[in-house]
Amino acid sequence: DVSLRNVTMRNATAPYLYGLMFEDINHSGDGGIYAELLTNRAFQGSDVKLGQTPGLDGDVIVQSENPRLPTGPVLTGWQAIGNVRLSLDKLHPLSDSLPTAMQIDIPKNATGEVGFANHGWWGMDVSPQNFTVSFYVLANAPRKKNSSPTDFNISLRSNTTGEIWATTTAKRIDVPTVDYYQINATIVNTKTAPNTNNTFVITMNATQVAGQTFYFSMFSLFPETFKGRKNGLRKEIAQAFYDMKPKFLRFPGGNNLEGISTQTRWKWFKTIGPLKDRPGRPGDWNYYNTDGLGLLEYLQWCEDMEIEPVLAIYAGFSLDVFGQEGTSYPSDQMRTTILKEALDELEYCMGNASTTYGALRAIHGHPEPFSIKFIEIGNEDWFSDTYPERWEILYGGLKKAYPNITYISTTFNEHKNYTIKLPPGTMWDTHHYEEPQYFLRNFNFYDNWQNSTNNTDVGVLLGEYSVYQVNTPSGIINWGSQAPVDKDAHVTYPRMISAIAEGVYALGGERNPSVVKMSSYAPSLQNLNGYQWTPNMIVFDAGNVVLSPSYWQQWLFARYRGKQTLPVTNSKGDFNPLFWAASVEEGEQVVYVKVINAGAATVPLTVNIDSGYSGVNGTILTSNDIDDFNFFGNKTVVVPKPLVGLDADGLGTVNGTFKWDVPRWSITVLQFNTG
Ligand code: AHR
User: Fold this and answer.
1) Which of the listed residues 250, 377, 379, 538 should we mutate to test ligand 1's pocket, taking the one with most ligand atoms within 8 A of CB?
2) Fewest beta carbons less than 10 Å away: which of 57, 241, 242, 603?
């Protein structure tokens, strides 16, 4: 029985409940949502092996040789064309941040086309659109008298047939010898390549350049991006996020915020400004991060999706390589270095143009200050016993400067029994990578939350959760098994059973809006060709994007959230296998009843709405097999479908009873028209 009449029993739903968690893992950023098409564009480091063709259904996995240490500088991803020699050069840096250039020596006897190709992030998609190109070039000697300036032919080509899809030429460039010259160009492409085994090619004519040496640095090739942002996001992936109707984006980590050493932590001030001034860093997930997707790009991502940033700030603790205990900043540096850095970061985000860092942001192209409502202090700090002090320093210092921000602490871990006492108005970030049974058992986890943590008025960001492994004999999460090793211990792709279990847990959150204020699946993205963690909500390669059942569960719940929760009473027994929650939409026209059948048998359902309804429709996510998943060969095994022919009898009745057999293994949102 769903009560619309008893308004005193309602609660406001959490306005930011469903959102996104993002960090650069699994090439989710470089080689993922960051739309740059070139791998190793400034020779900083790469795990993309040359010539590797994208695997469609297979698991082609590339790890750097030392799994925790991305190597660089390297020429990986680049290939010579014609009679030339490519090498790394350290004597002609483009900038302090990009110390390595690519040298090309063209012998005197060279003929024909000479140059090089880049193979992209395991290939590149070529479809009709304009591609934006830029690169820097320098010559080692002035052009000889009577020789002609250089034409740089820039093209997109098939790596298998050599066919040229589109080309443009930067003509008659008198390449300087002192400072680099930047070439900007547009490739207008009208063709659709049959596959993603394509390359970006720059060539010169040997008649013009034989005997010369050039240095090249900082290449870039962008397709059209989400909402047309310069240096922006890959359209199809961003669109998939946007379609979920998320309310926030937590970034930039995750572990990747913390660094595998204090020196290599994510430093916001090294991720801003012109790309040639961003050094990048060895990320936490075994590959080099360019930081092309930097602080401003994250904020613009939020702006373009109309969502709130949940900015995670570095909290003075870095993970260590080879399983050591991690490194904490000494207390005396917490204020002088770490708090100061965080305050500067916030000034960059929110300061107006009269402030030092606000002015810098304006120079970087965004004079309007952003608004930050949520700050997370650190990530998973239960790994460190220094957090209580670090939290006090950062929370105290930031709260003083920005009293209206909601601060999120990261130490809660029910398995580790490590909590600190938080002040009212703050939040915990809880993480759950679990078995399906865990989520079913803990449907009521947040019902008694305040009591269990001994805190009052402390909310929850359910910041990372997903079904990690399914029905392993021990039922214990096997952290020793990371992709690609030992796939049995954790699932490769989210399955229908994952979506069901995650959905049940999400319903537990929806029922407790005064506690669970925000939630996000993690990790969100995986490049099929280079990854460190499975399962992930969305899997992609250079040309495909696959949305998992877990994605669709999030999509379904985020779309139909409602303005207020409604009381539901049930005379037929407790939850399980059926789980439910109800809410009413703004304007009272529509009541949503979310129902999950986690069992293997159909369950008859009767819904009474005390003020009646005049029509009902719904959307269902279900599958024949609970282990079904979507994959590259068949992306639509599990997708939401409209329910048709619902309630032929009850339609149009007032005070009517809705009867429906809930299919096994299903997630449904019923929409009752109550207007
Ligand atoms: O989501 C992958 C990792 O899981 C995150 O980086 C970390 O916060 C958690 O341990």
Assistant:
1) 379
2) 57
Cα separation of the two ends of the chain = 18
And the tokens for 77? Answer: 């991803």
pLDDT band at 651 (very low <50, low <70, confident <90, very high): very low
Find all residues with CB under 8 Å of 345, minimum gap 6, and list them.
Answer: 268, 269, 295, 311, 313, 357
Q: How far is the C-alpha of 583 from the C-alpha of 563, rounded, in Å? A: 7
Structural element, H or E, at residue 215: strand 213-222
Cβ(517)–Cβ(11) below 8 Å: no
Burial of 372 from C-beta contacts in 10 A (0-12 / 13-18 / 19+): buried
In whole numbers, what is the pLDDT of the chain averaged over residues?
91
Closest residue by Cα to atom 4, ligand 1, is 254
Residue 439, phi then psi, degrees to nearest 5:
-65, -35
181 C-alpha to ligand 1 centroid (Å): 41
Query: Going by CA atoms, what residue is nearest to atom 7 of ligand 1?
Result: 254
Query: Hey, is 53 helix, strand or coil?
Result: coil
> Which of 200-209, 370-379, 401-410, 451-460 is the least confident region?
451-460
Q: Which residues line ligand 1 (CB under 6 A)?
A: 23, 25, 253-255, 379-380, 431, 464, 522-523, 533
| CA gap 19, 241 in Å, rounded | 9
Whole-Å CA distances, 65 to 42, 72, 160, 286, 291 = 20, 11, 28, 9, 22
Report the separation in Å between the CA atom of 254 and the middle of ligand 1, taken as the mean of its atom positions. 5
The residue whose CB lies within 8 Å of the most ligand 1 atoms, and thus the one to mutate among 251, 319, 380, is: 380
Strands 101-105 and 281-282, sheet pairing: unpaired
Helix and strand element counts for the chain (H, E)? 12, 34
Going by their DSSP bridges, the two strands 288-289 and 281-282 should be labelled as: antiparallel
Please state, in angstroms and rounded to a whole number, the distance separating the CA atoms of residues 309 and 348: 14
Is the C-alpha dihedral spanning 626, 628, 629, 634 positive or negative? negative
Across the beta sheet with 198-205, the strand order is 78-81, 113-118, 198-205, 150-158, 164-173
Q: Is the dihedral of CA 637, 642, 646, 648 positive or negative?
A: negative
Least confident of 91-105, 124-138, 277-291, 414-428: 414-428
Structure tokens at 430: 């809880």
Ligand 1 atom closest to residue 464's alpha carbon, by position in its atom list? 1
Domains identified in the chain and CATH numbers: 7-14+562-673 (2.60.40.1180), 78-222 (2.60.120.260), 248-411 (3.20.20.80)
The three-point CA angle 486-264-320 to 5° equals: 50
pLDDT tens digits, residue range 90-111? 999 999 999 999 999 999 999 9
Own/partner pairs, 232-236, CB within 8 angstroms, 24+ separation: 232/35, 232/297, 232/300, 232/304, 233/33, 233/34, 233/35, 233/301, 233/304, 234/32, 234/33, 234/34, 234/35, 235/35, 236/540, 236/545
Give residue-wise pLDDT tens across range 327-357: 999 999 999 999 999 999 999 999 999 999 9
- Report how far residue 264's alpha carbon sits from residue 267's, in angstroms, rounded to the nearest whole number: 8
d(CA 333, CA 533): 34
Residues in the chain: 675
